[in-house]
Specification:
alpha+beta, 26 helices, about 850 residues, about 25% helix, single chain, five-stranded mixed sheet
């Protein structure tokens, strides 16, 4: 995804306004606006949640307007960015900025972009895409006639005018590449995007048009088209006709010819397709199966695009709309090649992608031929990451070089080369990205504004909680005035969420849920995404290339990781997660696509072999969702060696519902526990409620909700001290009894880190060991520091089990390899940005 313009130049600065409370008879109150990503007060925490928070209530809506209405009437604490991806619409910016009870994030480039995908696959057996039936197989993006047809379609869409004149009303940024606007080229300090000269060169008729019209105004755009689509007689409509005629010369079976009754264009050619063209009846008999999304701006884009294409084909209906639910759309477009999922059951689709990584390397997974399932020589995958089946040899070369280099210059030069090939082949039609702004109540303190996302991110729920602010309008109290232990998060994915199985999840709202239940291997700093640090690990290191030129990432896990069902999490779980997500997952395979092997060195250590070397390798593999091997693996299988096998076939069935099966169990900060009387508190199920109050499964309908509860099971019968999230924040640590006395692993780590190095070292262990058996400071200078009577109430004055507890954290780190406080004498390394202050 890439935008050519800085969103700040498209969306002007909004002036802060003040609002009078009117009938409340108070003085005007200054508007409350959220802080920017890099503001010093925009802080995040590597532990949590806030001790006051026990639950996240995720409330689902069927469209953006319904979620907006809910927020504006006090039914939500934090919004998502909606199905549009832009969050608060431009028309409401002033309203949000002037309301003293609301926060709105400043404008920033989003990680979301939309456009039109084409199915480039071809089957000659009569079951293929209509391009074959028309007489011009697209041949995975390679056929010359196919390039001409797609360039004709591209001329019909005026991206800048669609952004300004269409539903976005200027609340977006026109784009021509498959790179989001949150990617910055470090050599130019500009958004990653194809150069203007490259864009103009993509047109196969560029020389002709330049001579007549001068330089193009953008990719496949010769002149402005009011409303966003080329009208008959306009330069771009006539260019579309030119390209269809050019396609016909390359594939005469198309049977298209110019309309002798049409007006002449600037070159003296008739600007229209003859209604009597001999090939039109065949084209009309094989209309393109179009799948537009149901919500704006993609709905308007899809409908107007279809109308423009119909007009191009002499007013004939050459599109048939196959409206489906959002979940059904996903199974048609993104599933293929297996059993009930045909490969060629659609022609175009109004897509939306979200990419929050800092590098443009996701292009590799989206467009390299090895990821087009088995249609271009790759492995059979039901949900390929290259769902349009692009297979272009020259493109593969640039993409692989980009994805396997440590040299930034090589990475970016090959990224631009790849974009040039994608653009010249017109493999799809990227249209726009967003200027994203998201909203929250001012009664929420410390909402985290994440780069490219705003408030729609999991870091919120590690630090955000009820503030001391008293709203002007009582409707906007935290949790609507209810208990302060529950934070309400809006989700515009009602009737879209259909898979909470990590192997099939694909929508952002599904990952919003999974991201709270499961941990990842590493983590990205939400305000500086290139800073990647250990999450479930204590250390990570990369080695120089081996004899085969491949990079190795060595990881040491933390000692005390437990799944929410009490089972230990180890290196075999991590290996299983990485390898099976690479081989069987749709979206998650993006991150693990270049993993060659994972070798378990010990229960806490593993070596990950990556293909080639790359700046992005740690970031990508670090995004792996860690899923429980004891739940998902086929019993007794050893396909990958070291006791690690493939997933149980039942879990690879798209109908497998972890919520119904009671297996929505991770190691993350929040857990799914039943809300229903029949099995109240049961783990892994019962956390989803339908709109009528009945028990729900993974298909979440409009009006449904998900209630997730903090993972702290230390108070349950038979629990151990590590039956809690390993980064749990509980200031009451060390004051309870039994395992519950150790609730608060962040506080326990901080205590074990006697010398404030943000790591537990042998020096810390030596200090506490010197005090073993001591009952006073005699011979133990740190007696008062170490003594914790709650851990041994029978001998409250004698240091004993404290030694074992500190040893259980030996070598623990918290934000490795970064420095938390920046003090190089205590915590050497680059300071991590935006983090809460280090507290000794």
């Amino acid at each position: 995804m890439k935008a050519e313009f800085n969103p700040a130049l498209i969306i002007g600065l909004m002036l802060l306004a003040s609002v009078s409370a009117g009938l409340l008879a108070v003085q005007p109150v200054k508007a409350a606006n959220g802080v920017g990503v890099l503001d010093s007060t925009n802080i995040w925490a590597p532990y949590g949640p806030d001790p006051s928070i026990r639950n996240i209530l995720m409330k689902f809506y069927g469209d953006d307007q319904s979620e907006l209405n809910a927020f504006q009437t006090g039914q939500l604490d934090i919004m998502d960015s909606g199905q549009s991806g832009s969050g608060v619409p431009v028309s409401l910016y002033n309203s949000f900025q002037s309301n003293p009870d609301w926060l709105i994030t400043p404008t920033q480039g989003a990680g979301i972009y939309h456009g039109i995908y084409y199915n480039l696959d071809d089957q000659a057996d009569g079951s293929g895409t209509v391009w074959h039936s028309w007489g011009c197989p697209f041949q995975h993006g390679n056929s010359l006639c196919g390039i001409e047809i797609r360039q004709a379609f591209a001329h019909l869409l005026d991206r800048p005018r669609f952004v300004s004149d269409g539903p976005l009303q200027g609340g977006g940024v026109p784009m021509v590449d498959d790179v989001a606007a949150n990617k910055i080229d470090p050599f130019t300090n500009q958004i990653v995007a194809s150069s203007f000269s490259d864009q103009c060169s993509w047109d196969t008729l560029a020389a002709k048009y330049t001579a007549q019209y001068g330089t193009c105004i953008g990719a496949f755009n010769l002149a402005p088209d009011p409303g966003g689509f080329a009208a008959p007689g306009s330069p771009d409509f006539c260019a579309a006709v030119d390209h269809l005629i050019q396609a016909n010369s390359l594939a005469p079976a198309l049977g298209l010819q110019r309309d002798p009754a049409a007006a002449l264009d600037a070159f003296g050619n008739h600007c229209g397709i003859d209604p009597a063209s001999p090939g039109l009846p065949n084209i009309v008999a094989h209309p393109m199966r179009a799948f537009p999304r149901h919500t704006d701006p993609r709905l308007t884009m899809g409908l107007n695009f279809a109308n423009a294409v119909n007009t191009l084909f002499a007013g004939n209906r050459v599109n048939t709309f196959l409206f489906r639910t959002e979940a059904q759309l996903g199974s048609v477009v993104f599933f293929c090649c297996f059993r009930f999922f045909p490969t060629d059951d659609w022609e175009w689709y109004t897509f939306g992608y979200q990419d929050n990584t800092p590098y443009p390397t996701t292009l590799f997974n989206q467009f390299h031929s090895q990821f087009a399932s088995n249609v271009c020589g790759g492995s059979l995958v039901v949900q390929p990451t290259n769902p349009t089946f692009v297979c272009i040899l020259a493109l593969d070369t640039s993409l692989l070089t980009m994805a396997t280099t440590l040299d930034p210059a090589t990475l970016y030069s090959n990224a631009y080369a790849a974009l040039n090939i994608l653009g010249s082949h017109a493999v799809d039609l990227p249209a726009y990205t967003f200027a994203v702004r998201t909203g929250a109540l001012r009664s929420v303190v410390n909402p985290v504004n994440s780069a490219g996302l705003g408030y729609e991110n999991p870091w919120n729920f590690l630090i955000a909680h009820k503030s001391s602010y008293t709203p002007v309008d009582s409707r906007f109290q935290f949790d609507g005035g209810g208990p302060s232990d529950t934070i309400r998060w809006g989700q515009a994915g009602g009737d879209i969420v259909a898979n909470l199985n990590p192997y099939f999840a694909q929508w952002v709202w599904e990952f919003n849920i999974l991201g709270e239940v499961y941990d990842t291997l590493f983590a990205q700093n939400p305000v500086s995404p290139t800073q990647v640090f250990c999450w479930i690990c204590n250390s990570l290191s990369t080695s120089p290339p081996d004899a085969n030129g491949n990079e190795h990432i060595t990881v040491e896990l933390k000692q005390n990781l437990h799944w929410q069902d009490g089972t230990s999490l180890d290196a075999y779980d991590v290996k299983f997660s990485i390898i099976t997500e690479r081989d069987f997952s749709a979206v998650l395979s993006f991150d693990d696509a270049l993993v060659l092997n994972v070798n378990v060195l010990s229960p806490l250590e593993l070596d990950i072999t990556m293909r080639g070397v790359s700046i992005a390798h740690p970031l990508n593999v670090g995004n792996t969702l860690i899923i429980p091997r004891h739940i998902y693996q086929l019993a007794g299988d050893n396909t990958y060696g070291q006791g690690v096998g493939v997933p149980d076939p039942a879990t690879l069935d798209p109908s497998y519902d972890p919520v119904a099966q009671g297996t929505l169990i991770g190691s993350g900060p929040y857990q799914c526990r039943s809300r229903f009387v029949s099995d109240f508190g049961r783990l892994g199920t019962g956390c989803i409620t339908n709109s009528d109050g009945s028990r729900g499964g993974q298909n979440i309908e409009t009006g449904g909700s998900v209630l997730l509860t903090v993972y702290d099971n230390t108070g349950q019968a038979g629990a151990g001290p590590f039956d809690q999230w390993f980064r749990l924040n509980n200031p009451a640590w060390g004051t309870g009894s039994g395992a519950a006395g150790q609730s608060g692993q962040f506080q326990e780590f901080s205590w074990a880190d006697r010398y404030d190095n943000a790591s537990v070292t042998i020096q810390d262990v030596a200090s506490v060991e010197a005090c073993f058996g001591k009952t006073s400071s005699t011979g133990c200078a740190d007696y008062s520091y170490w003594i914790r009577p709650a851990f041994h109430p029978g001998t409250p004055g004698t240091i004993s089990s404290e030694v074992v507890i500190v040893l259980s954290h030996l070598d623990d780190t918290w934000v490795y390899p970064f420095s938390w406080n920046g003090d190089q004498s205590m915590q050497p390394g680059q300071k991590i940005q935006g983090i809460v202050p280090f507290t000794p």
